[in-house]
Amino acid sequence: MQIERNASLKALNTFGIEAKAAFLATFHSADELRLILESTEIKNFPKMILGGGSNLLFTQDYDGLILKNGISGIECIREDEDHFYVKAGAGENWHDFVLTCIKNGYAGIENLSLIPGNVGASPMQNIGAYGVEIKDRFDHLEAFNLETGDVEIFSGEECEFGYRESVFKRKLKGKYVIVSVTFQLLKKPDFQVKYGAITTELEEMGVKELSIEAISQAVINIRNSKLPNPKDLGNAGSFFKNPVISAAQWKKISAKHPEIPNYPAPENEIKLAAGWLIEQAGWKGKRIGNCGMHAKQALVLVNYGGATGQEIYDHSTRVKESVAEQFGVELEREVNIL
């Protein structure tokens, strides 16, 4: 066990923001985490868990202990007639996990290829793309209770999944560390190709027979054509959530802007495309200083190099205010701000 002092976080966040932590430690098991937390050196400091750093914006240094989740391992722990139950360490890279599942014929998460981050963040965020969300393929997770030191099991119902939400982002925020996630994956694929440009991409690829490999590659191609690689341009993927509005609000907005893309949401609400709103407000490809909304995807805020976290945050505020003024819709940041 090693605790690093005054540690740089630049390589640990996909925005590439230079920030420092008073302490930094990596754990590879619940037992290691327990030992670190028992250290008298850091006992009274605030603590934060860090996964892949792909959904985080540092606007300041962190005067506490950052715990880097390094728990690894992928294992099919059981199966039934229709499913494989696949357990993954929370520190595993998400895309690598998806590719491992595809290689082994475990279906159901191929549409979630190339999403940045680690496995542990997937239920926390209820990540989703191209018609699939984690809650659709989730079985249970194990989480370390920071107060008691116990490892507890959470079912899907106990995770209280919502749109890019879970109980770990709300009332249990900062109280647990996700240790592992077990997914209920399919033996017989249920191909989801209606959302986005997957069908078109499959046709351009010349795919004659659907497979989870083909769908994964189509998603990878689409994402690579639209989204910048964080290694080239610092970013955290989609910076804002797609807003969900009431039917009454939709009636007012659609009367003024009938062309707005919209999708049905639970409880008779309407989901709007945040990227479309941002583009129509004039922010797509617009750069101010060292940051701006990407030229190919208005939903992605990028660091062109040298931007501070505060610069990026301020730019997101300008975008939010502009969209609210033009459309009367409040955008919510998907990225966690520190």
TrEMBL record:
PROSITE patterns: FAD_PCMH. The active site is at R164, S238 (proton donor), E334. Its cofactor is FAD. Residues 15-188 form the FAD-binding PCMH-type domain. It holds the Pfam family FAD_binding_4. Pathway: Cell wall biogenesis; peptidoglycan biosynthesis. GO terms for molecular function: FAD binding; UDP-N-acetylmuramate dehydrogenase activity. Its EC number is 1.3.1.98. It is found in: Cytoplasm. GO terms for biological process: cell division; cell wall organization; peptidoglycan biosynthetic process; regulation of cell shape. InterPro entries: FAD-bd_PCMH, FAD-bd_PCMH-like_sf, FAD-bd_PCMH_sub1, FAD-bd_PCMH_sub2, MurB, MurB_C, MurB_C_sf, Oxid_FAD_bind_N. It catalyses: UDP-N-acetyl-alpha-D-muramate + NADP(+) = UDP-N-acetyl-3-O-(1-carboxyvinyl)-alpha-D-glucosamine + NADPH + H(+). Keywords: Cell cycle, Cell division, Cell shape, Cell wall biogenesis/degradation, Cytoplasm, FAD, Flavoprotein, NADP, Oxidoreductase, Peptidoglycan synthesis. GO terms for cellular component: cytosol. It comes from the Bacteria. Its main location: cytoplasm. Gene3D superfamilies: 3.30.465.10, UDP-N-acetylenolpyruvoylglucosamine reductase, C-terminal domain (3.90.78.10), Uridine Diphospho-n-acetylenolpyruvylglucosamine Reductase, domain 2 (3.30.43.10). Cell wall formation. PANTHER family: UDP-N-ACETYLENOLPYRUVOYLGLUCOSAMINE REDUCTASE (PTHR21071:SF4). Belongs to the MurB family. This is UDP-N-acetylenolpyruvoylglucosamine reductase. The gene is murB.
